[in-house]
Amino acid sequence: MWEKGGAALFLRDIQFRWERISQSQKRQYPFQLPAYRSLDTLELHQPVTFFVGENGTGKSTLLEAIASLCDFPKSGGEILAEEHSEAHELLLDQVLRLSWMPRVRSGFFLRSETFFNFASLLDRRKQEKDFGGNPYSRYGGKSLHQRSHGEAFLDLFQNRFQESGNSIYLLDEPEAALSPMRQLAFLSIMKKLVDTKRTQFIICTHSPILLGYPGADIYSFDEAPLQKIDYEETPHYAVTKYFLNQRDAMLEKLFEEA
Ligand SMILES: Nc1ncnc2c1ncn2[C@@H]1O[C@H](COP(=O)(O)OP(=O)(O)OP(=O)(O)O)[C@@H](O)[C@H]1O
Ligand SMILES: [Mg+2]
After folding, report:
1. Domains along the chain?
2. CB neighbours of 16 closer than 8 A, spacing ≥ 6?
3. Which of 11, 93, 96, 187 could form a disulfide with 68 if both were Cys (CB 3.0 to 4.6 A apart)?
């Protein structure tokens, strides 16, 4: 296991093997997205990596392709055979190659849009007579549908993610369900997991709070190709800061232009 700054790193880089597709394919989704343009290798140096950028710049598409290569279901969740049949076809994973040191098979792919489906899947498992064990045991002991969106998310983080073993967590906008206080709680859970040296995170986010995780690498998909930027350079930080400091002036200008 390669360690940097005392923390673990498993997935070390993501290579784009453009020679695998034709010139005409390169002009089509998802390969034509500017963030991927002439990108050869995306290196990961920290246990926490963020993908940021405008809506539609290709963050989720890349995260889904990584999840697919990790053998996590594309619809989100962990390895549950039933979900594979529901997965829609992805192309980007055919071009990518992941370099591991060491290869990690445990983890979770969290898509907030499909979290509801995952909760329903656990409920169906509970109904199945031949399903060995309690499907809720790793998720706080009861149906995720019996809690609010944010409570269910934090249950997931606090229970499922506390398990030991080398793991990689791919999270797509985990802040969607969380209040600002719960986002801080989530940062604290992340820190504890990173400190175990057994956890790596890749997170797509629009949250200036989550992005504040110390020492994380932030990749901006607003650039072509995507590139690393500092926290203070993100619009999430700059716009939020400006809005909070100059709310009246900013709103006045905004509404004048409207
Ligand atoms: N199946 C598809 N076919 C064609 N285009 C698609 C398909 N799925 C997504 N797109 C487009 O690809 C682009 C990237 O989508 P993606 O979901 O990766 O964006 P994102 O960076 O995660 O955005 P957001 O911040 O809004 O979640 C978008 O413009 C989207 O409309
Ligand atoms: Mg997205």
Report:
1. 2-120+168-257 (3.40.50.300)
2. 36, 39, 40, 41, 42, 95, 96
3. 93
